[in-house]
Amino acid sequence: FTDPLSLTFFYLIIMLNNPTYLGLWLDYREAHLVRLADGQVETEQLTSEVEDFNVRGGSRSETPFGPQENVAERRYQERKRHQVKAFWELLLPAINQATSVYLIGPGMAKKEFLHFLEATMKSDIPPIKLENASRMTPRQLIAKVKAHFELSPRWTSVSKAQTRK
Predict the structure, then answer these.
(1) In sequence order, which residues have a C-beta less than 8 Å from that of residue 10 and are 6 or more positions away?
(2) What pTM did the predictor assign?
(3) CA dist., res. 30 & res. 24, Å (int)
């Protein structure tokens, strides 16, 4: 294949014939990935390095009845923003390999991750479905992902989970 268009078309046919489904439980502290492809289930857990900041220090205001402490909170927010972005960039390869993504988790992390994907990947984003979900065991997560993609519970055997930091 010398023509880039024919090469892209070739990969598209391969992806349609062998779909890779990705279930992603996402929070700011960790992500649990469930990949369903080629008759197997692969699970992976990624732990983020996003810190919980306990703002300390500061100085008293010069005005008599002003705030008790002036803290440079912006510095902490910027630091957290950079840590979250670095964590989300770790998830990009899994999203690039998927033909369809099921994004679940508590809070706002999944919506912010979707906005990050839209800004980063532009038009190459696979179809993504969002849903709220609280913490689950690995087996519950696998069952939920299989049910979402309408796959048989006996479709695959579970591979050993990997943990990455």
Answers:
(1) 1
(2) 0.74
(3) 10
Cβ–Cβ < 8 Å for 113, 26: yes
Question: Distance between CA 159 and CA 92 in Å, rounded?
Answer: 22
pLDDT value at residue 122:
78
Q: What is the 3-state secondary structure (H, E, C) of the chain?
A: CCCHHHHHHHHHHHHHHCCCEEEEEECCCEEEEEEEECCEEEEEEEECCCCCCCCCCCECCCCCCCCCCECCHHHHHHHHHHHHHHHHHHHHHHHHHCCEEEEEECCCHHHHHHHHHHHHHCCCCCCEEEEECCCCCHHHHHHHHHHHCCCCCCCCEECCCEEEC
CA distance 54 to 100: 38
Q: What is the pLDDT of residue 14?
A: 47
Instruction: Give pLDDT < 50 ranges for the chain.
Output: 1, 10, 14-15
Phi and psi angles of residue 164, each rounded to the nearest 5 degrees, phi first: -130, 145
Residue with tokens 């990997």: 162
Phi, psi of 78 (to 5 degrees): -65, -40
